[in-house]
Amino acid sequence: MNNDVKKIAVLTSGGDAPGMNAAIRATTRAALHSGMEVFGVMKGFQGLIDDDLIPLKSQNVSGIIQRGGTFLQSARSSDFKSVEGRKIAYQNLKKRDISALVVIGGDGSFTGATTFAVEFPDISIIGIPATIDNDIYGTDYTIGYDTALNTVIEAVDNIRDTASSFNRIFLVEVMGREAGFIAVNSGIASGAEVIMVPERKNQIDKLRKFLDRRAQKNKSSIVIVAEGLEEGSAMEIANIISPDYPNFDIKVSVLGYIQRGGRPTAKDRVIASLMGIAAIEAINDGQKSLMVGWRNEEIVHVPLSKTFKLEKSISDDMLNAVEIIGTFLPKN
């Protein structure tokens, strides 16, 4: 055990994700169990610069595990991108004798955390992956993904009811600017007829061929569109194809930030809790600049720098499954 670490801070950064509160709770209680003092940083890295830290006791994190979002709040910090801003953040940690920082967030958060760790190596930084996109390299799972996925599935199930009643084509836009994990998995689970993801290119022609066949059968369809397509947004795609299918009532539903909200699922709460405990164990072991991830149903350690330098891709097995069960995924 690393007895040098007596005080730690924990923050949430970037986009919020259901389950972040469970991670804060577990991190706090595991640290207190180890005899550490814990400080919560309000509003992410900006809170470090603004010296907005609050002491956390066990009672402070009671009753938050079921809540979405993050009670520590989050914010984008342009100040933290500067050397001067990071120096102020470091000084605010040191004046409290804080020697370890747990960062709960995604690849952008880990990029900033890694830069900070290089500049100030006496601060032990441990990352906990939390993003609904599930696109962090080195971990099978990120906090918030399961809740977001179930939110999308419920929404698509409801949309399908009206689509079939009125012979409509619904383009449902989901989050996933650079990775199609939400799109592929929600598409399989909801029985969507078409899935369009950033990993595939030139998809509109393939979509047209599918709709030509669909028009002959006069059937409704659900098209899942990830927000990061090179062809444009779901609305832009609808504007392109609508003139060619006058017999279809083509509608667009952008789920947007509804995917970030809601009570976290049991899976998100449990894995977030295990990651929070693992983060403190890593600090006690003297580890620095790593992420605690979840791979093959167990905790793993991944160098923090690898989490944003390397890309995580959808498996071929998953893409093959999409085609086998009948959901249409345009190929390159």
Write the layout of secondary structure elements.
Blueprint: E1 7-12, H1 20-33, E2 37-41, H2 44-49, E3 53-56, H3 83-94, E4 100-105, H4 107-119, E5 124-129, H5 145-166, E6 168-174, H6 181-190, E7 194-196, H7 204-217, E8 221-226, H8 234-241, E9 249-254, H9 266-284, E10 290-295, E11 298-303, H10 306-309, H11 316-324
Parallel strand pairs: 1-2, 1-4, 4-5, 5-10, 6-8, 6-9, 7-8
Antiparallel strand pairs: 2-3, 10-11
Helix pairs in contact: 1-9, 5-6
CATH top level of the largest domain?
Alpha Beta
What is the number of helical segments per DSSP (H or I, 4+ residues)?
A: 11
CATH architecture label of the largest domain = 3-Layer(aba) Sandwich
How much strand content do the residues show? Answer: 15-25%
Low-confidence stretches: none
The name CATH uses for the topology of the largest domain is Rossmann fold
Portion of residues in helices? 25-40%
Task: Look at the structure and give the mean pLDDT.
Answer: 90
Global shape: elongated
Question: How many strand units?
Answer: 11
Distance between the termini: 52 Å
Largest sheet strand order: 3-2-1-4-5-10-11
Q: What Rg do the Cα atoms give?
A: 22 Å
Secondary-structure element order, as H and E?
Answer: EHEHEHEHEHEHEHEHEHEEHH
